[in-house]
Amino acid sequence: MKGQGFLTFPVMPDLKDIVEQDNIAFTRVFKDKISGYFLIDIKNQVMKVLGLNNLKKYYDFSWSYERIITGIGEGTEYDICRMIVGIHRANSIFLTDTEVRRNEKSKRYKQQLISETIEKIKLRLYGSVYFRKKSLFRGEEFLYYPLPYELFAMSMKMNELLGNNNKCSQLYYGVVYNCLSALSLLEDNLLGTAYPLCRGAIEMYFKLLLLVSQPELSDWYEKFRMFEIKYSCNGTYPKEFSELFEKRKCESSKAKASYLHFGWVDSIDGYHEVVNERPYSVSGICSFVKIKNEDEILGLKCLEKLYKECHAYTHGSIQTAKYPVLHYFEISIMLYYIIRETFLLLCKECNVEALVDGHDIISMIDRDFKVLYDQYQNRSTENFEKYYNSASTENI
After folding, report:
1. Is the dihedral of CA 338, 340, 342, 345 positive or negative?
2. What's residue 62's pLDDT?
3. Is residue 80 a contact partner of residue 47, using CB atoms and an 8 Å limit?
4. What is the DSSP annotation of 232-278?
5. Which helix (H) or strand (E) holds 110?
6. Residue 359 in 3-state DSSP?
7. How does pLDDT run across 335-360, given as a tens digit for each residue?
8. Residue 354 φ/ψ region, left for φ over 0, alpha for ψ in the -120 to 50 degree band, beta for the rest
């Protein structure tokens, strides 16, 4: 009828068209980091293998007005794509473009990538659910690389376990706090600033190893920790501390500040017989722990070496190196040794299995550490230059 208006509704797009447009968008978002066709193929297979019911365990598909107005959503496929890209790029370090393409055509490699992506999805409630949608500084998404991702999940599990009253809880908290902070900086490509936190984590880790092996030290450690707090508040040394300083075992050490931080080592039997230089210091504790535990604890020599190298970032003017992947290597190696052992110690103390959400996280990190460490052993200026000038990284 003339003049009569009719309401018209937009034609709803076909589901197949939506999927195709989404895949085009994912290809565009990750175009500088991975082959688009390869990415979509792996993503589709991952989602097919898991199925909707399993995906619902790890991603919230529910609709709500709150999610609409805040723009906060799970971004399921985007998150899965970031996992795929992270694992694939971690595996591809120092490979030639030809070798990378060969992997992308390999059925065996594809199956491995699908399996490891599903593995990461199953850790997601301790992992990427906490990650940023976008890094503060442009660069590689190192936190989605296998080892850092798993170390983050382990740290979050420790954070959960520390709800109990644990022995040495202050040191456990300190280790977890510093490790999560360093991983968060790795996520945002604030790489140089992660080193002081790693250095602090190493210091607390060595103290923790001592106190766990000799629980009777806890009271002395706590006494000196309270001395530090009182000194921070008042700016003067407590009377009891000054009396202990006058009776210190290493009389050649004249610095009260050093004794304030490490005077509790005087209560360790045989400590001063083993540590002849700078006993009231981290290096002194490191020397003692290394001598007493070298055959039992992984990576003590490596941690000592990397601890010294952190000095340039902690006290010097270096903030970042020419090759960001070198930071990824060093930070991951330090945190692997610290988090792995601390996690095992805490699980033993809490009388729980060393699992994250039912998964054997130790086997995962040991497997992925081997890949990373082999790459680290092959580091060279030539390999770094090739890596950053290859077609797959030219826009990183």
Report:
1. negative
2. 78
3. yes
4. HHHSS--HHHHHHHHT-S-TT---HHHHHHHGGGGGSTTHHHH--S-
5. helix 107-121
6. strand
7. 999 999 999 999 999 999 999 999 99
8. beta
